[in-house]
């Protein structure tokens, strides 16, 4: 299983309506402070985010991916939307 597939799998309990994951690790090769984890851009839409602040949305995502940070995920850019925000 690739890391993108593992991230996708761990986010499935959020029943995403849309889910895009971009691996931007190659753009950050040799980045200072990176102990080997990848850089990812995540765009997700889920009803679980309805009526939640951006901070709460990020916490939900970080909780789902906690075991991968920082060993496999060094940096994560998150764009999380509720369905009515599309």
Keywords:
alpha+beta; 86 residues; 3-stranded mixed beta sheet
How would you characterize this protein structure?
- With 86 residues, the protein is of the alpha+beta class.
- Helix content is 24%, strand content 27%.
- The protein has a three-stranded mixed sheet with strand order 1-2-3.
- The N and C termini lie far apart (30 Å).
Write the topology of this structure.
Blueprint: H1 3-11, E1 18-23, E2 38-45, H2 54-65, E3 73-81
Parallel strand pairs: 2-3
Antiparallel strand pairs: 1-2
Biggest sheet features: 3 strands, mixed
The topology string of helices and strands comes to HEEHE
Distance between the termini: 30 Å
State the secondary-structure class: alpha+beta
Helical residue percent?
10-25%
Task: Estimate the mean pLDDT confidence.
Answer: 91
Q: How would you briefly describe this protein structure?
A:
With 86 residues, this protein is of the alpha+beta class. The protein has helices spanning 3-11, 54-65; strands spanning 18-23, 38-45, 73-81.
């Amino acid at each position: 299983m690739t890391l993108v597939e593992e991230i996708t799998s761990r986010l499935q309990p959020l029943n995403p309506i849309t889910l895009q994951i971009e691996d931007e690790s190659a753009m950050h090769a040799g980045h200072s402070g990176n102990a080997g984890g990848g850089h990812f851009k995540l765009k997700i839409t889920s009803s679980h985010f309805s009526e939640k602040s951006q901070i709460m949305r990020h916490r939900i995502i970080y909780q789902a991916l906690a075991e991968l940070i920082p060993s496999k995920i060094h940096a994560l850019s998150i764009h999380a939307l509720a369905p009515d925000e599309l």
